[in-house]
Amino acid sequence: MHDGPRIRAVDPASPLAVAIVRTYLEDVASRWYGRPATVDEVDRALVEEPAADLHGDSGVLLVAVDDDRAVGCAGARFLGDVAELTKVFTLPGHRGHGTGRALVAAVERVCRDRGTTTIRLDTRAELVEACAMYERAGYEQVAAFSDDPYSDRWYRKTLVDTAGND
């Protein structure tokens, strides 16, 4: 019986991670430009939106794997007691099946386990499905906390420990 994708932490430099992060940035850049992004545009996005620090003490990168193929990713960059949710993406053919939500929940568990009290993220309002997923997961829209030129919506969620304490 096929249970769906398995989620695991990966080294951002691994071929599995590089492939899905590049696909994510290609998707984001293509939406931004309103046309398929060029290789150069994706390469530039990789420089502007690095993933290399999403491991060890500075962050985590989780990948959803189905039949040995990466089908989604989500990461967190650790900034003291705050984590920045980043690189949340699911391949189009795997959307609508809970993979994105499972990835976000897994990132939240990692953050909670390391004592992070707050997760925040920035995104764009045009990513309607993503915004709806974040809101269903308990993220609240907040005032801008960054000056990212590609963002026009910011979210925050306070984490509680597994015992239900603040």
Instruction: Classify the helix fraction into a percent range.
Output: 25-40%
Number of strands: 7
Number of helices: 4
Largest sheet, in brief, is: 7 strands, mixed
Strand content: 25-35%
Strands side by side in the biggest sheet = 1-2-3-4-5-7-6
Q: Tell me the span between the first and last alpha carbons.
A: 39 Å
Order of helices and strands: EHHEEEHEHEE
Report on the structure:
The chain is α+β, with helices and mostly antiparallel strands and 166 residues long. Helix content is 32%, strand content 28%. The protein is built from four helices and seven strands. Strands 1-2-3-4-5-7-6 form a seven-stranded mixed sheet, sandwiched between helices. The mean pLDDT is 91.
How do the helices and strands line up, and which of them pair or pack?
Elements: E1 6-9, H1 15-33, H2 39-48, E2 59-66, E3 69-79, E4 82-90, H3 99-113, E5 118-123, H4 128-136, E6 140-142, E7 153-158
Parallel strand pairs: 4-5
Antiparallel strand pairs: 1-2, 2-3, 3-4, 5-7, 6-7
Question: Could you give a short description of this structure?
Answer:
The protein is of the alpha+beta class and 166 residues long.
Supply database-style keywords.
166 residues, alpha+beta, seven-stranded mixed β-sheet, 4 helices, 7 strands, 32% helix
